[in-house]
Write a structure and sequence with these properties.
The complex is a heterodimer of chains A (82) and B (244). Chain A has helices at residues 7-17, 41-55, 61-66, 70-81. Chain A has 82 residues and is mainly α. Chain A has one domain: ACP-like (Non-ribosomal Peptide Synthetase Peptidyl Carrier Protein, Chain A). In chain A, helix 1 (7-17) packs across helix 2 (41-55) and helix 1 crosses helix 4. Chain B has one domain: Rossmann fold (3-Layer(aba) Sandwich), CATH 3.40.50.720. Chain B is 42% helix and 16% strand. Chain B has a seven-stranded parallel beta sheet, sandwiched between helices. Chain B is globular and about 45 Å long. Classes of the chains: A mainly alpha (82), B alpha/beta (244).
């Protein structure tokens, strides 16, 4: 069953996922850009997959191309679930 | 990196010929094999039986890969074989020959649909468990036709050349996740699709013989193996020297 989407839950999922792409936990914040964190397009595709598995929310390549910051990603998932 | 335990290999079009030989070779190398078929259930069951008799694990799974999303096929493979699909061999292929000037839209669409579009959809789906596992092997069965001309097969040549192009780009996209994507390009192989090869053709092959499905399967087995972890984006010709 998909987990219920809340901003807090999605934030937790994203924060927990990023270190597996080599991001230092101390650098993660809502305002941090994926560029600063050295998170590339394949990492974002994988993050999208983790989100989909957890929440059943599908993010397409177009969506992912628009997001710049960690906060953007969280907000996008929350808005898609609503 | 070592192959995870209980890894499943999905081979499309594996009821006979090259696909069946590939399924047997991968099973002999320790993969649990999903033997996909479209219409030849008997052939698929015979492939599964041969694998089981040799001590391997396999299951026959029906799906027309050219139609519909491949989700169900992957789910069935993973459920029935007990592990994620970490190898995909896009082998299913059809021909509908004719000189380009006479080739109708249906013959074009059918060959591109099965040989190229279906391979892409399966590849896209297969990368999910592979990226997650940081391990994966995708092998596309292309052909010497594509890199080379073959009058009467513009659709088939386009599909197979497209498959080689797709192989290279997808390989570059996922290499850093431990997923390799390669192609094999068989030449003249003795199957139902190529029976009655004229003598003149055989004389044009440096090896002076047609290949066997096992010749192709051996190349796929290597590309799917742990040993081939640093080989990606390449096309291995199995053609008795035809392209040399």
């Amino acid at each position: 069953m998909a987990t219920t989407v809340t901003p807090e839950a999605v934030e937790k999922t994203v924060y927990e996922a990023l270190p597996q792409f080599g991001v230092e936990e101390s650098e993660i914040s809502r305002d941090a850009t994926f560029e600063e964190l050295d998170v590339d397009s394949l990492d974002l595709a994988e993050l999208s997959q983790i989100i989909e598995d957890e929440y059943g929310v599908q993010l397409k390549g177009d969506d992912v191309g628009k997001i710049k910051t960690v906060g953007d990603a969280i907000d996008l998932v929350v808005s898609r679930a609503g | 990196m070592a192959r995870p335990e209980h890894a499943t290999a999905l081979v499309t079009g594996a009821s006979k010929g090259i696909g069946a030989a590939i399924a047997r070779a991968l099973a002999a190398d320790g993969w649990h094999v999903a033997v996909n078929y479209r219409s030849d259930e008997e052939g698929a069951n015979a492939t599964v039986k041969a694998i089981e008799e040799a001590g391997g694990k396999a299951v026959a799974l029906h799906a027309d890969v050219a139609n519909g999303a491949p989700d169900e096929l992957f789910k069935q493979a993973e459920e029935q074989l007990g592990g994620p699909v970490l190898a995909l061999v896009n082998n299913a292929g059809v021909t509908a020959d004719g000189l380009a000037i006479q080739l109708d839209d249906d013959a074009w669409d059918r060959v591109i649909g099965t040989n190229l579009t279906a391979a892409f959809r399966l590849t896209r789906r297969a990368m999910r468990p592979m990226i997650k596992a940081r391990y994966g092997r995708i092998v596309n069965v292309a052909s010497v036709v594509g890199p080379r001309a073959n009058a009467g097969q513009s659709n088939y040549a386009a599909a197979k050349a497209g498959l080689i192009g797709m192989t290279k780009t997808v390989a570059a996209e996922v290499a850093r996740r431990g997923v390799t994507v390669n192609a094999v390009a068989p030449g003249f192989i003795e199957t139902e699709m190529t029976k009655d090869v004229p003598d003149a053709v055989i004389e044009a092959i440096p090896a002076r013989r047609v290949g066997t499905p096992d010749d192709v399967a051996a190349a796929v087995r290597f590309l799917a193996s742990e040993d081939a972890g640093y080989v990606t984006g390449t096309t291995l010709f199995v053609d008795g020297g035809m392209s040399a």
